[in-house]
Design brief:
Elements lengths: L24 H12 L2 E6 L2 E6 L2 H7 L5 E3 L3 H10 L12 H9 L5 H5 L2 H16 L6 E3 H18 L12 H15 L5 H32 L7 H7 L11 H15 L1 H15 L1 H14 L7 H4 L3 H14 L4 E6 L7 E3 L4 E3 L4 E5 H4 L19 H5 L19 H18 E5 L8 E2 L5 E2 L3 E6 L4 E3 L2 E3 L6
Parallel strand pairs: 2-8
Antiparallel strand pairs: 1-2, 3-5, 4-12, 5-8, 6-7, 9-12, 10-11, 13-14
Helix pairs in contact: 3-8, 6-7, 6-18, 7-11, 7-12, 8-9, 9-11, 12-15, 12-18, 13-15
């Protein structure tokens, strides 16, 4: 006997359409998880969706012998802008394998490490900007870090300097926000309504994203270089299995895809700043580690693996923020009959769309003691190693996991270390309570901080230490 999957009461024809706010979908799902627990379902416009929110069920759905990524809903909508890219290709499209085999060598840990200095120096640029501000001038953490992310991504992968940390915001940021927000909302509306009232804005934002990508490609063509980055690979490499290469439109597809994926990274670090300000003892511990490991030396890639507590901060921020809020799963297409989950406790149809809600998974009380507390030490060393794999799915799962995860990890680590090393923060509004919204990511809303240089001199192990780039 299976247990019925709980579902909120709906309305005729529309189902649970009013239980999910299309302008803040993930917060709505968080509330449903808080009410219904490890698994629940909704029906919207006749389509049933099952949501999973604990570690054991998440780990079960990540078994690639039974399940695979589902490309539908908002992800399918994004195909309007990027077609069959690594992010949006259907499971049965051979083009995914072609793109993956061409691009995979560009995002290995070793390949990503080649760009550490660029990542670090972009972070230095941001702290230099912040040190020039009055301590009374609040800044939006997510807005500033969005600029840093697009600056770094464009430089590291496409070899182009946007110089977008100051002045007008790079248009790609607004275009991504507009296109991805609309992609989330479109499945909740009738198609005719989308075409009549929302298509023109969606088309404009998609066009602007592709314009950014086309400019990156044209910049490289106009400025030949021996630089061996991702753009070089896309323009020159061939698939070792089929011999196929990418044409210009396919290159543009992938250039757009990368910043959409990397946009979760500034969400992680802006959340980390919030959590650290709520737990200032964690700042002290992190700075003690940074001062001990990096000290007066130049910050290098070799330092990263020695900064274990800082790594714990990043992992714990990934856990609590659920900055990449979930991923879609479906049973393999040859699955017959109903699918049993949880050792037979639950049953779903063989063609069922399921979504892993990481806000719930990451707060599973069966795995995390005091799940709402920010405790970086639980993400360090043996404590981290003992966590079940289903509790570490911040970058998705399996062969369709985030293909830029190694870059994202390096960016997150380099950025948080640089900020803690050089800058002091305080909340512009000490009474601020975390609010989130987002589309393919979750970000803090209305979170402002005041920034100022960290004390220029402090005693470190008997020597005088100066933060990097300070006069």
């Amino acid at each position: 006997m299976t247990t019925q999957i709980p579902q909120p009461p709906g309305v005729p024809l529309l189902g649970n359409i009013f239980d999910v706010d299309p302008s803040n979908t993930w917060t709505s799902l968080q509330k449903l998880w808080e009410k219904y627990g490890e698994i629940f379902k909704i029906t919207v416009l006749g389509q049933q969706i099952v949501f999973v929110g604990n570690v054991a069920l998440c780990e079960e759905l990540c078994d690639e012998k039974r399940f695979r990524k589902f490309v539908g809903g908002p992800i399918e909508e994004v195909r309007y802008a990027v077609h069959a890219s690594l992010f949006t290709a259907f499971a049965n499209e051979p083009i995914w394998g072609v793109h993956h085999r061409i691009l995979a060598p560009s995002v290995t840990p070793a390949a990503v490490a080649e760009h550490f200095v660029e990542v670090r120096d972009c972070a230095y640029e941001l702290t230099a900007k912040w040190r020039g501000l009055s301590g009374d001038s609040p800044v939006s953490a997510i807005s500033e870090l969005n600029r840093l992310d697009i600056e770094t991504t464009t430089l590291c992968f496409y070899g182009r300097k946007l110089n977008g940390l100051a002045g007008p915001e790079p248009p790609m940021i607004k275009a991504m926000d507009g296109a991805t927000s609309e992609a989330i909302k479109r499945p909740t509306r009738p198609g005719l309504l989308n075409r009549l009232f929302y298509q023109s804005k969606f088309a404009k934002d998609s066009k602007d994203m592709r314009k950014y990508a086309a400019e990156c490609l044209e910049h490289r063509k106009a400025n030949p270089t021996d630089r061996k980055d991702m753009l070089h690979t896309m323009m020159n490499a061939k698939d070792p299995e089929t011999g196929k290469s990418l044409d210009d439109q396919q290159i543009i597809d992938e250039i757009v895809t990368m910043p959409i994926g990397s946009s979760t990274a500034p969400c992680v670090i802006s959340h980390a700043i919030y959590y650290l300000l709520k737990e200032p003892t964690c700042i002290t511990k992190a700075r003690e580690e940074i001062d001990s490991v990096v000290g007066e030396d130049e910050f290098t890639h070799d330092h990263l693996e020695k900064l274990s507590y800082c790594a714990g901060i990043v992992r714990e921020s990934l856990r609590l923020s659920a900055a990449a809020p979930g991923f879609n799963i479906e049973p393999l297409p040859d699955t017959e009959g109903p699918v049993l989950l949880g050792g037979g406790k639950y049953q779903v149809p063989a063609k069922q769309t399921m979504i892993v809600v990481l806000h719930g998974v990451n707060r599973d009380p069966a795995v995390f003691e005091e799940p709402e507390a920010f405790k970086p030490e639980r993400m360090v060393g043996e404590a981290f190693e003992k966590l079940p794999e289903g509790a570490k799915k911040w970058f998705g799962n399996g062969k369709r996991a985030c293909y830029g995860m190694h870059h994202a990890w390096m960016w997150n680590m380099t950025t948080i270390v640089t900020l803690l090393k050089d800058v002091d923060f305080e909340m512009a509004d000490p009474s601020y309570k975390l609010k989130q919204d987002g589309w393919f990511n979750l970000r803090p809303v209305d979170f402002y901080v005041r920034v100022k240089p960290r004390a220029k001199e402090r005693i470190l192990l008997g020597t005088t230490y100066r933060p990097c780039n300070l006069p």
